[in-house]
Design brief:
Layout (H helix, E strand, L loop, with lengths): L10 H5 L4 H11 L10 H14 L5 H8 L2 H6 L10 H10 L3 H15 L4 H7 L1 E9 L10 E2 L5 E9 L4 E7 L7 H15 L6 E4 L6 H9 L3 E6 L5 E6 L12 E18 L5 E7 L4 E8 L5 E6 L6 H9 L2 H12 L11 H25 L3 H23 L11
Parallel strand pairs: 1-5, 5-6
Antiparallel strand pairs: 1-3, 2-3, 3-4, 6-11, 7-8, 8-9, 8-10, 10-11
Helix pairs in contact: 2-7, 3-4, 3-13, 4-6, 6-13, 7-13, 13-14
Length: 405
Amino acid sequence: MSVFKGHGVTVNELLKVVPESLLSHLSQSTKVDHYTKVLHGKKLFYLLMYGILENEKLSQRSLEDTFNDPVFKTLFNLDMEESVCRSSISERLSKIDPIYFKEVYENIYEQFSSLYSPREKSRHHLIRVDSSMVSETVGKLLEGMDNKSGKKAVKYSIAFDGILPCESQVYTSAKYGSEDIALPDVIRNHVKKEKHHKNLYLIDRGLQSTRNMEDFSNEGILFICRAKENRKYLELESLIAHEQNLDIGDAILMKDAKVQLYTGIETISKKGTKYYKEKLVEQHFRLVLIQNKEDNKTYMFLTNDFELSAKEIAQAYRKRWDIEVFFRFIKQELNVSHLVSLNKNGITVMLYMTLIVAMMILIYKKLNKLGYKTAKRRFAMEVRNMAIACIVLHCGGDPKLMFKT
């Protein structure tokens, strides 16, 4: 039910992609409800979804109040006599199987992505990959990597197809502090879901390991990453054709070459000291260097794609910014930087739920041609109107008298 004219889709229609039958089926297949009296998987799903939308800063206390709110129970047809306390929510988040929420997330993504237009499907093959660190809870995290400020931190690493998040991981161990470990892990997890993919992965300067790039090439994974300006390489051949136009729109092509990259080989000296000896890897890569016309800043890209033109490589990488916008959206509008749970299990559940809500809002935004803030606000308002309509019906009234569609 929507009061907004000209909308192509309503919240009620979007919620149908998560039918109660799906939640019930997954409850059985994942055995998520074994030994649980009140907070079944379905109820926790509704609670977290509604809580993320209704609360500016979600917490276990606000989730307790939300569950015990008659409006929430009426909207999702829950037993008015049931109640939960904060400690029950905390314990359930720490122990519930995240696979249940992952399955819902992937089911929703599959349904929404199947609606992409042919043009969007071609863009869909550009996969932006990046990470964001969260350390708001200082030292209270049960699991987390230490950062420079002395706080414990959690890393969210996400793959984004330009419209929706298509893969995500939560990392708490120190080794994943390096993007050279975290990002390849996310990319390979995404590749496993699309064995015959034609994806091109867009990565920022966080990934610099030559070994990773070599492994990607051997595994048939295409990538474009931004290299550091002092990157050492051996140029083998210029790929700039004779009399080729070096003007590529808003930039000038400075170099397009086939190169070999150096890597460090761990070596022990005669005195027993460990050091790294430089060695060229056999794999060939492509280096594209451009200069921005506006500020004369140079950008160096490394890729294993030799089919695209230099202009197409620069344009493709520019689309990587979409994931930065997405991270800003889930931080500012869905408050993902505030950790509701203090262990990895609960944090993982909350990330999947945040991505589920984000996908619904992003599709709502796209189909109704809205901005991020307007989409989130109107989405929440429609949920509120649905709750009011349920109460009106429950009391024997006619919601159409209030909501004229």
